[in-house]
Every structure is written in structure tokens, then in C-alpha cells.
């Protein structure tokens, strides 16, 4: 039985711990202390660290964790990751024997140049996508181009509809506020707002989301939908020549929202 547990860190980060009864793998440990506390609480042995990209709020705990645990550190080949032992890129596989989990690596540049995501199809479809796809939003484009980010999101949207999306920030309510401006008549989005508000009032994470839901509500996955195109066009006062153009203007709008 595999559990996937969100460890809260900093203001709004989730460090995902994937574990069975004895072993745990940690995704993007920006800080070690809450990870070590949870390992001790559950009497778990850490067996690997997975990193999606180089930002400190995703990697800052590596050194301290490695002082206590001698484990491999998987991460993007094209970025500097502290103590990385297994550099990865598109199509590589990570076989985590201790927790019986096989992951496939996807290159998802845009937020950073070398950003990767980890997809598993067993025991269920799930992806650990770092700061690429968020619930109702997407990551800021710090190092890559809008085209790279657009293509990365398109790649993630090709995964099976029931894929659980494990992103690394609780940005959902803020993202919904923006999405409602862009796509005000979307009834699924209105429903999500009510559901997400209820969860957050009880301090329950809105993550994971599913790809199917995101395709229905996330404006960054809906740049081919007329309602989104019309609102972006109105706001940007630009002639939009296609989905990438719409995406670029939409991301720009969100940056200044
Ligand atoms: Zn980041």
C-alpha cells in the first residue's frame, strides 16, 4: 500500500513523501527538518530523494538529509542540484525498489531550463510536476521561453485523464481568482472555487488535482477555447494568432494580476 503524504514547508510548499510501511521517497525537500520529523514519527527509512528543479525551496534540504541518510539523489541532468547522484532527462526510468514504484522522466522546461517531472502509471497514474502545472495555474517562466512552458504543459496534458497531479505549491485559491477573470462563465470553475474554499477553510490541501479537472478549469490548458481567447484578446489588446500566442499573453496577464 502506497501513501503519498504532503509535508507542509515554508509558506505554501508541499514536500511529497511517497511511502509504504517501511520505506519513503521524498520529492523536492526544500527543508530537512519536517521531513526528518515525519520519518521518525512513522518509523520510515528514507530510500531516495527526487528533485524536479534547482530552486532552493525544492533542494535546500538535500545536504541535511544526506547527513542522516545515505541515499541516491535523482534530478535534472541540465541543472546544478546539490549532491545529485543520478542525473536524468526525458525517457529515463527511476526504479524505486523499496517502494515498488517505477517512474518515467519527462522534460518540462519553462519554469527553469532543465525542469523535469516524474510520471508513474502503477499503482495509479500520477505525476510529480514541481512548478510546471499547478491547480488552475502554471509556474512562472523564470528561465525558459513561453514556447517551452506551453509545450511542457501540452506534454503533461497528453497524460491519461485520471492522472493525479502532485504539484509543489498550494496556490489554488489565488489561481482560481485569476481563472475566474479569464473564464467567468465556466461552471466547473465556479464549482471548484466552492470546493477549494471549503478545503482551505479546514486547512486541507487542494492537491492532488486531476488532469481531467485541470483540462476543464485551468486557463493555461484552455488556450484553444473561445471564452479564454476572447478574454485574453480583450485584456491584451493584441491580435492572437494561435494557442501559443494566447498562452504567452495569458501568462503575461497573470504576472501582473
Ligand atoms: Zn521553482
Describe the protein's architecture and organization.
The chain has helices at 33-42, 56-59, 62-68, 146-157, 172-182, 187-201, 211-217, 226-236, 243-255; strands spanning 3-9, 13-19, 23-27, 45-50, 73-76, 86-88, 93-96, 101-107, 116-120, 126-130, 133-134, 137-138, 164-167, 209-210. The protein has a six-stranded mixed β-sheet with strand order 1-2-3-4-5-6, covered by helices on one side. It has a six-stranded mixed β-sheet with strand order 7-8-9-10-13-14. The protein has 257 residues and is an alpha/beta fold. The protein is built from nine helices and 14 strands. Helix 5 (172-182) runs antiparallel to helix 6 and helix 8 (226-236) packs across helix 9. The chain has one domain (3-255): Metallo-beta-lactamase, Chain A. The structure holds zinc ion (ZN). The site of zinc ion has 4 residues, from loops. Zinc ion (ZN) is lined by residues 53, 55, 111, 131.
Record the SSE blueprint.
Elements: E1 3-9, E2 13-19, E3 23-27, H1 33-42, E4 45-50, H2 56-59, H3 62-68, E5 73-76, E6 86-88, E7 93-96, E8 101-107, E9 116-120, E10 126-130, E11 133-134, E12 137-138, H4 146-157, E13 164-167, H5 172-182, H6 187-201, E14 209-210, H7 211-217, H8 226-236, H9 243-255
Parallel strand pairs: 3-4, 4-5, 5-6, 10-13
Antiparallel strand pairs: 1-2, 2-3, 7-8, 8-9, 9-10, 11-12, 13-14
Helix pairs in contact: 5-6, 8-9
Amino acid at each position: 500500500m502506497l501513501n503519498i503524504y504532503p509535508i507542509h514547508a515554508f509558506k505554501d510548499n508541499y514536500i511529497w513523501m511517497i511511502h509504504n510501511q517501511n520505506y519513503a521517497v521524498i520529492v523536492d525537500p526544500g527543508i530537512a527538518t519536517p521531513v526528518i520529523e515525519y520519518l521518525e514519527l512513522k518509523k520510515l527509512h528514507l530510500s531516495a530523494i527526487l528533485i524536479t528543479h534547482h530552486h532552493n525551496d525544492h533542494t535546500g534540504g538535500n545536504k541535511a538529509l544526506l547527513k542522516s541518510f545515505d541515499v541516491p539523489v535523482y534530478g535534472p541532468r541540465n541543472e546544478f542540484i546539490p549532491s545529485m547522484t543520478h542525473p536524468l532527462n526525458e525517457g529515463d526510468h527511476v526504479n524505486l525498489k523499496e517502494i515498488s514504484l517505477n517512474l518515467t522522466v519527462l522534460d518540462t522546461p519553462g519554469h527553469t531550463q532543465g525542469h523535469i517531472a516524474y510520471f508513474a502509471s502503477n499503482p495509479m497514474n500520477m505525476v510529480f510536476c514541481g512548478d510546471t502545472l499547478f491547480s488552475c495555474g502554471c509556474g512562472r517562466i523564470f528561465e525558459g521561453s513561453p514556447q517551452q512552458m506551453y509545450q511542457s504543459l501540452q506534454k503533461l496534458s497528453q497524460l491519461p485523464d485520471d492522472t493525479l497531479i502532485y504539484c509543489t505549491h498550494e496556490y489554488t485559491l489565488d489561481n482560481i481568482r485569476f481563472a475566474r477573470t479569464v473564464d467567468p462563465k465556466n461552471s466547473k470553475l465556479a464549482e471548484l472555487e466552492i470546493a477549494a474554499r471549503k478545503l482551505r477553510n479546514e486547512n486541507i490541501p487542494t492537491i492532488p488535482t486531476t488532469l481531467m479537472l485541470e483540462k476543464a478549469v485551468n486557463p493555461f490548458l484552455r488556450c484553444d477555447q473561445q471564452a479564454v481567447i476572447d478574454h485574453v484578446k480583450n485584456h491584451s489588446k493584441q491580435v492572437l494568432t494561435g494557442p501559443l500566442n494566447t498562452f504567452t499573453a495569458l501568462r503575461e496577464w497573470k504576472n501582473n494580476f
